[in-house]
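Supplementary notes (optional reading)

For those who missed the lab, this is the record we used. Protein: D19L3 mannosyltransferase. Length: 720 residues.
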Amino acid sequence: MTAPRQRKGVRLADAADEQPSQQEDAKPRAEIQSAHSGGKLWNILSLTVGGIVAVCLGLLTSVYIATLHENDLWFSNIKEVEREISFRTECGLYYSYYKQMVQAASIQQGLHGLVYDNKTESVRTINILERMNVYQEVFLSILYRILPIQQYLEPVYFYIYTLFGLQAVYVIALYVTSWLLSGTWLSGLLAAFWYITNRVDTTRVEFTIPLRENWALPFFAVQIAAITYLLRTHLQPAHERWTLLAVFIATFFFSLTWQFNQFMMLIQALVLFVLDCFDMLPTAKVTWLYIIQVSGLLLVCVLQFFNSMILGSLLISFNASVLIARTIQKNLKKGGLFSRLGKLLLHVLFVSCLTLLVNKLIKKILNLESDEHIFKFLKAKFGFGATRDFDANLYLCEEAFGLLPLNTFSRLSDTLLFYVYIFVLFPMTVTAAIVAFQNLRYSIGSTKAEKSVGKKEDCTIALKPGTAYNLIHTVLFGCLALSTMRMKYLWTSHMCVFASFGLCSTEVWGLILKCVRLYTSQRTSVIRYSLPVITLLYISYKFWPGIMDELSELREFYDPDTVELMNWIKSNTPSTAVFAGSMQLLAGVKLCTGRILTNHPHYEDKNLRERTKQIYQIYAKRSPEDVYRILQSFGTDYVILEDSICYERRHSRGCRLRDLLDIANGHIMDGLGENEPDLKPSLYPRFCEEIKRNLPSYTVHFTRVFQNKTFHVYRLAKHK
């Protein structure tokens, strides 16, 4: 009994002794509370200022892009036909559906015209909403019709201002992502500055306004920002649910607006797969992201009238295979290092084989061949055998689908972006490799892991889940950009985010300073704030005069030959006339004149690809009877020949359109140079050249009705 009494007495004595000390601590506690409230006030102030700066930068970017577009074309002063011609190639095709909806007698008739379209492909009725990603044009046209703005704003301005406005969303999303990663809005400011000063390599919206990627990439950037926030640790359940909803909405709009969405999200799924395999992301969140990707894509599939190309996408097959494999291999993340490596290799092999099997099965059931040209192109591009396939070679010979030019890096280095990017990428990659090794070595359930918790925590602190995701994201999309120049815009914009994050990050500078044994929190803070400010001052000093000169430079749209052609077609041909020609030109013919086409640039359909190859025989070595028969089979009334294609010099021998046709037809190419040994001379001269001689064998089928320095239009004879 004495022991308890003694302990009780001690407590009373301690309590009596502590009374004066508690009174002494009252003042420091008040100071702590005051400091806490002051810190909270500072966070609110920083959030407010950072948000205002983000919105201002986004709006300034929109105005800047819009001004460049106006100055380059004098868009406000040129005629409507010139404005429409400025929407080159597939851009004109997409805009034509917006124009069609705006000019329709009613919204219902406009939608009916898209669902039962018989003007885009002659002698065929197709569903535009199924075949193409044009819901954005439908939505904008309906919005324009119901808003009371027709008297103040022309339809074309409503359209282009919407696209320029999306650039504001794009810049704000990049800004926020960098801010989330680094913890300071100064990083977002630097990311936005780099995006603007590297405009040549980060966007092409000012001269390809209706292009699908200009609609999609802002939503992709919003999705990445939402994923970065989602991967934060200790996120409250309510915040997590709202963030998942934001990811789903951004994913849905990204998928809805671009036909190549499935390939971009496949790379994103590979990012998640890699990080999940190495325990660098929470498995539950990764699962949700897989489900969101598939559900967003399936919802788009429903809206596109069950487009078979979506159902047969590798993304759906891959995500389904990962989830199935994870269910089967339940002990994937348990065991020692070698056990984990063996299980990981087996898991990767199983997922790969299952993906190919599921994808092959879906395509066989649906009889899907819409995307086969992409795989033929990839097979030839990466050296898995030469091909004579016309469609694959058409892509291979385009500069946009070639390797990223080296001068891209010199331009990115002028703004210091590339140097900083490499500087940040190297230590982050090394850190990721160490983290991955430690995660494999100290697995869930192993006794070594329990003994080395502190060691593992020290390692993972240096690489947060959001940082890990953005690191692998930039690496994989960098590989895509290096292999295919057209995809560089997915990489360079994220490069701005990643480089600015690294320059303002305590993670990066803490790691570097610890390696050289110079780490202090004060030194880290000084570096992470001073270097970005110095970089911003340097960029402003070097590029501000150039931006001002660019904004003051005035040019004007000038394409008199195409304008003359479009005006002639509108004035001298019936509205039901069917035109054949190059894909790029016919998109403009549909937009400017509303005439019926035989083919067009939206190439994601096997029948259209075969039809285009047949129409392009006008530039091959074929007899006039063969060409006439081919054109007649598609209901052609007029054919347009372009000297720029017939006598092309832009591409080297072997990549000119006429060369691709000769190879596909088994004919020897024109000009000096080697030919494949099995190619033979054609029995006929080149059609586009020979028809201009007005020989009887040609004039019996074709009559020239228009010509200028660029174009020659022939009317087909109506033989019984």
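If you only remember one thing from this example: The CA atoms of residues 95 and 522 lie 55 Å apart.
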